[in-house]
Amino acid sequence: MSATWVTLLWHAWVRHRVVLLITAAALCLFQFALTQLAPAPNEINWMSTILTTLPPNLRTLIGNEVALSSSGFLALGYAHPFLMILLSAWIIRVTSAAVGGEIGRGTMDLLASRPVPRWHFVAAGAVAAAVGVAAIVLAAWLGTAIGLGTRPIAARAAAFWPVILGAWLLFTAWAAIGLAISATRRDGGAAIAWTTTIMALSFVLDYLARLWAPMSWLRPFSLFRYYEPQAMVVSGVAVLSVVLLAGAIVGALIVATVGFARRDL
Fold first, then answer.
1. What average pLDDT values come out for the chain (265 residues) when binned by 10 residues?
2. Which of 7, 34, 175, 249 has the CB geometry, 3.0–4.6 Å to 77, for a possible disulfide?
3. How open is the CA angle 174-179-180, to the nearest 5 degrees?
4. Backbone phi, then psi, for 217, in 5-degree steps?
5. pTM for the full model?
């Protein structure tokens, strides 16, 4: 690793380390708490009864696994708004600061004065965001593993590895998209606004498409469609999800690299 890479990654660490550590700790504690609330095997039947009283659309949204297993209940924690918001906030913070934020603050002139290709800045931002996502989701899994170790129920921590992979792919794809947006903006505020809006619209589209049948055909257009923790616990990550999310990562990084290389500072 060259001195330039070390400098850029260290710069990202200094800027974001506190937020990263707090986010990871919060999600570790959150997933641990869910293991203490998860239904034991003898409590599954009454939850199944309650589920049958819900409207069909809500049962689809929740997922039938929640009434069938403790693993299904814990999987809901990996799609909980708390986790989604914290991971989204991490992505928006890091990617908006990586290019657009540096330009807006005037620090890009200093960073770009080094004799290095511009793609290094995009790549360093992508690595910082992706490593941060990995640290956060692994901390969440650690909370699940510790909780299951202190309260044995009908669930295994190893069953959540596909969920961790799926979460990493989804939010790394959003990181790449965030970098593509940031590479075209002149300040961090604009990058934050655009990335937040696009992510929110994608999430709402997926949510409404699951609730309202006439909109269901639109669901594949949302990246959140390809992250379903309840199904991943049972059958792993779908090949289609891996291909599409990986394709989104590569495509968005190409757009970010080309866009940043062709713009003025």
1. 69 87 97 86 56 55 56 86 95 83 50 63 89 97 94 86 97 95 80 92 92 88 94 90 97 90 63
2. 34
3. 95
4. -70, -15
5. 0.87
